[in-house]
């Protein structure tokens, strides 16, 4: 099990970067699925059903994703623990340069937030029943769509999702440009562009994700007409 | 011409030996000319300490013109003090105000342990260079300047990397005590030039292996090193080293 105690710092960094990149791909793919929420219950539930029909391929994909996630976290924790040994005596005063990005300072905070978020998110929608009372909108069970829709009637739940998506955005802001640096794509010429690119990318990711809790929350509380509209579920299309 | 005199309060790390735990000691120094450099101010303090039969503050220094890489300390939490792109010896007291308090600490890293007071042992950086930061081909006597043509752009980048004086500020400023800016500069200054290219991938592997041997931390791309570097060496040198490390693992 020698790979569990990796020796080469540069290898660890490369593995964290490459697993991080795969997770970014996943975040983008997941977002594409999420946005079908705006198309109503039919499309959203249809998309979810199509994914489920892809098993056992989906099981394999989930397993790989799980491994990637575990490696990304394990190696990071390994480095954080190791970090204490390399500076045994702390500075009494240490100023951070203005050059260091806000998001890079928060990596060890946004990381655990995302971890907690993912666990709760899986409990919320993946490992929960997609039938029953929680899925009923206007007297009709709308499956996963109804479950998501109803969950965002709670302000606390919506705010927690928005907060988590901000954490994801901050994590990506440092993580994405870090990937370019670790894989040597960064250069004096393109460095500035890559930093800006990752910033804009992460802002877009966060903004796109938070549209769903915001939309669902306002639809729950202020959009009675639309609820009736989206509440129509054509089961023959599934 | 008489220059302005100020009074400064110092909080300086005193550690008698590598084994000593060390602690801060406070000193007040009057009549500090604003034209003095930081090291001259420490000289002034030491003269007073010697006159009082106290142990003077040990600090490294050599050229005192910012090109040798011997001096260096954290001043108020910044490597080489608050002035950008300068070594400690080139920091003049005109950048401080009367009655300022200056906290002076040595570089802190397990890879560069404190020898005494502000003096640290930077031999780990030398070991990284001796693990591969050279070319082993015999290049003969100096060739004609135009015998080997080199892009101006590349020559400039190589010169920028070669301006690293190995002071250790990058390690000191890094939140993880990583020497990657130093390593990146030492790798880039050779791999950018034709003479350094044949061994470039092996060099990267050997030097990064040595980094793992020393008690240094990992690079997490915070770029604190670039901000602290007295020679303003770019983190794109780290990217170059990273790129070559990946090429090495792909090519085997």
3D structure, described in words:
The complex is a heterodimer of chains A (238) and B (252). With 238 residues, chain A is mostly helical. Chain A has one domain: 3 helical TM bundles of succinate and fumarate reductases (Up-down Bundle), CATH 1.20.1300.10. Chain A contains 9 helices and 2 strands. Chain A has helices at 9-34, 41-53, 57-86, 102-105, 107-126, 143-151, 155-182, 191-222, 224-230; strands spanning 136-137, 140-141. Chain A has a two-stranded antiparallel ribbon with strand order 1-2. Chain A is elongated. With 252 residues, chain B is α+β, with helices and mostly antiparallel strands. Chain B has 2 domains: 5-105, Beta-grasp domain (Ubiquitin-like (UB roll)), CATH 3.10.20.30; 123-137 and 148-251, Fumarate Reductase Iron-sulfur Protein, Chain B, domain 2, CATH 1.10.1060. Chain B contains 8 helices and 7 strands. Chain B has helices at residues 38-51, 123-130, 152-162, 169-173, 180-191, 200-213, 224-228, 236-251, and strands at 5-14, 23-33, 74-75, 78-79, 101-105, 114-116, 119-120. The radius of gyration of chain B is 20 Å and the shape is elongated. The N and C termini of chain B lie far apart (65 Å). The model of chain B has no long low-confidence stretch (mean pLDDT 95). Classes of the chains: A mainly alpha (238), B alpha+beta (252). The A-B interface holds A 7-10, 12-14, 79, 82-83, 85-101, 104-105, 107, 174, 177-178, 180-188, 191 and B 22, 24, 74, 76-78, 103, 105, 108-111, 157, 173, 175-178, 208-209, 211-212, 215-224, 226-228, 234-236, 238-246.
């Amino acid at each position: 099990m020698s790979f569990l105690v990796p020796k080469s710092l540069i290898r660890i960094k490369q593995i964290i970067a490459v697993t991080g990149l795969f997770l970014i791909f996943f975040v983008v793919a997941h977002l594409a699925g999420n946005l079908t929420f705006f198309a109503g219950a039919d499309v959203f539930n249809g998309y979810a059903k199509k994914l489920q029909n892809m098993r056992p391929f989906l099981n394999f994909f989930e397993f790989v994703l799980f491994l990637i996630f575990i490696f990304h976290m394990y190696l990071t924790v390994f480095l954080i623990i190791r970090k204490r040994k390399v500076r045994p005596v702390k500075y009494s005063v240490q100023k951070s340069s203005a050059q260091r990005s806000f998001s890079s300072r928060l990596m060890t905070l946004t990381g655990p937030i995302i971890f907690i978020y993912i666990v709760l998110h899986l409990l919320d929608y993946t490992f929960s029943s997609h039938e029953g009372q929680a899925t009923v909108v206007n007297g009709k069970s709308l499956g996963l769509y109804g479950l998501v829709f109803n969950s965002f009637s709670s302000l606390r739940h919506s705010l927690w999702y928005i907060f988590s998506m901000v954490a994801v955005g901050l994590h990506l802001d440092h993580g994405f440009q870090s990937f370019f640096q670790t894989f040597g794509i960064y250069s004096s010429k393109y460095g500035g562009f890559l930093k800006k690119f990752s910033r804009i990318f992460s802002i877009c990711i966060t903004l796109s994700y938070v549209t769903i809790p915001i939309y669902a929350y306002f639809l729950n509380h202020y959009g009675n007409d639309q609820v009736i509209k989206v509440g129509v579920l054509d089961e023959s299309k599934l | 011409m008489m220059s302005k005199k100020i009074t400064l309060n110092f909080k300086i790390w005193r550690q008698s030996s590598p084994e000593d735990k060390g602690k801060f000691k406070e000193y007040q120094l009057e009549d500090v000319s604003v034209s003095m450099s930081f090291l001259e101010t420490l000289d002034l303090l030491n003269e007073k300490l010697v006159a009082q039969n106290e142990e003077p503050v040990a600090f490294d220094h050599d050229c005192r013109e910012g090109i040798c890489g011997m001096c260096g300390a954290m001043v108020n939490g910044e490597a080489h003090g608050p002035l950008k792109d300068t070594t400690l010896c080139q920091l003049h007291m005109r950048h401080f105000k009367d009655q300022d308090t200056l906290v002076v600490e040595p570089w802190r890293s397990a890879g560069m342990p404190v020898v005494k007071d502000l003096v640290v042992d930077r031999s780990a950086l030398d070991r990284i260079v001796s693990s591969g930061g050279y070319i082993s081909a015999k290049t003969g006597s100096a060739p004609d300047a135009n015998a080997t043509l080199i892009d101006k752009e590349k020559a400039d980048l190589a010169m920028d990397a070669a301006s690293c004086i190995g002071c250790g500020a990058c390690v000191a400023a890094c939140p993880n005590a990583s020497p990657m800016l130093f390593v990146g500069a030492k790798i880039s200054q050779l791999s950018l030039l034709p003479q350094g290219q044949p061994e470039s991938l092996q060099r990267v592997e050997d030097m990064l292996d040595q980094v793992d041997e020393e008690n240094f931390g990992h690079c997490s791309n915070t770029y604190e090193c670039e901000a602290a570097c007295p020679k303003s060496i770019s983190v794109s040198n780290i990217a170059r080293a990273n790129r070559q490390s990946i090429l090495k693992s792909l090519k085997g």
